[in-house]
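To: structure subgroup
Subject: Chain for Friday's discussion

All,

I'm putting the inputs and outputs inline so they're searchable in the archive.
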Amino acid sequence: MFNWSGGSIRVADMKSRVISFPPRKADGAFGAAGRLIVLLVMVLSLPVVTFAEEMRGVLVYGHEERTLRFCSDERLYWVVAPADVRDRILAGVARETDRPYQPVLLVFDGRFVERPLPGLAGDVDGMIEILEIRSISATGVAACKSAASKIRFDLARLDADGLQGPPDGLKSLDYEYCIPNEADAIAQVRSIDPTARIYRESPGRIGCSETEVLCLGNTHQSGYRAVLGELAGLCFVHEIREAFFE
């Protein structure tokens, strides 16, 4: 958001930044073109962020390590958070574990942030900002870790909106998996994934058995990483593969 009032421009993002200019003159050397150039430089210098979405992953949090690995992704991310959220993370980790740096399952609202990594970050694949905590638990860590291995396509290909490809040809990714042909299993999948579509007539490329039904889903949805992580965490889902249509 940009507010131009008097002799200043306010650039509002994660933190407000104010640049003051000399009073505007009709034909001054520092005219509209100069102001526009400075404004453009400031915009380009802002950290690149994505909109917040629900996420879940295994968190290790302490003074020297603040990392998270998604249930749906093998990559490792450095974690940042506002001060009040950091305090709640520390309190939750202390409540759920008996010693520092023990992994916990974190469900949260967050976003990917592109900014310089701190010196302690080490060898990580990116940075995530935690904006709101939904739950912290010591249970579910093993299931989350194993869930990532069930997803048989590379999530790094997808952007924050679940799209892939060149800028002028972005498209979503369809995925498929098998579940038992039972009402409870179908209801559970539909409660997790609003894009889930059930096909009883086709085994799909994945090869569902006679006692299973084929499920198709799509990544172009809010919180698609969390959705995939939850699906992969179901005991009756053995693998999730990219779907291809002839």
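Points worth raising on Friday:
The CA atoms of residues 180 and 212 lie 4 Å apart.
Residues 1-21, 43-50 have pLDDT under 50 and may be disordered.

D.
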